[in-house]
Amino acid sequence: MKKLFFIAIALVFSFSGIGQTKAAVSFKGEIANRNTDSISILNKNNRKEIKKILVGKDGFFKDSFAVEEGFYMLFDGKEYTELFLKNGYDLNLTMDAQKFDESIVYSGKGALENNFLAQNTITEQKYDYDALLASNEEVFMKLVKEKKAADFLKLDNQKLDPVFVSLQKKSIEMAMDSGTEYYMEGLETKKLNGVMSPSFDYDNYNGGKTKLEEFKGKYVYIDVWATWCGPCIGEIPSLKKVEEKYHDKNIAFVSISIDKLKDIEKWKSMVKGKELGGVQLFSDNDWNSQFVKDFHITGIPRFILIDPNGKIVKADAARPSSPGLEAELDALLK
Hints:
The chain is of the alpha+beta class. The chain has two domains: 2-186, no CATH class; 201-333, Glutaredoxin. It is built from ten helices and 16 strands. Helix 1 (5-12) packs across helix 5 (162-190) and helix 4 packs antiparallel against helix 5. The chain starts with a helix and ends with a helix.
């Protein structure tokens, strides 16, 4: 997941809004092994649908629509890819939906910019962000500087639309700045390792309240999550398997929801419907809960591992889906 972190950050920041005088974008293409009978062009900022285009059974589609010059997303019902569109483009796409990114090729007017984006996605997926985020501060800053320079150089070496270049450079800068902020927050989080954990006293799904101190003498693996968080829900099957494997070991599994108070019934319903195990707690003030703030939690899911004496083993522990988690727990619980 961390490998895609900077990619995700880059998708959050987009720049559009330069009006066009020509009528529309012409967009056509052929999609092999299509996922659905349509594709959607989405606003890159809020993912609202700008245009829905029907795809025939033979995989062919064709449409035209007016846009503001800038970045958009194409969604095929399963995956996303980034587009740069401006009125006057006559763009043709060929793609195999089963291979997706690796198969995307554009031709026609606007192909240069969009092929650049398609290839850049593949390049970013291969970049070792895990190593970057695991490096010390000096090395991290050096690598970020080098990556930014290399990314800018690729743009300078192409005969690309100048507006595209300008917007892409701004996107790179904001991605790097946000990634650096994330890294620095991580350094602060690591400083918590080895110190006594902040406590909590939260409502328990089964009734009453539960404090961290009640688990003294056991390791505690904490999952901070919310019902609206897709990645959190995606970890549930793996968490259940981990809970099952260690159910008779000296470890407690505690899940803390940071849903808003108005959604407490939704939380209860999900706990029951998904048959969530472990100890299910509801925080007292969502993101502003003191426990959440003390652990510098700005994104979820977040997993925390605490030892039997109440000291933090890892303030940002491995996820249940991570192969490294069971190896770590095996070593601690042997």
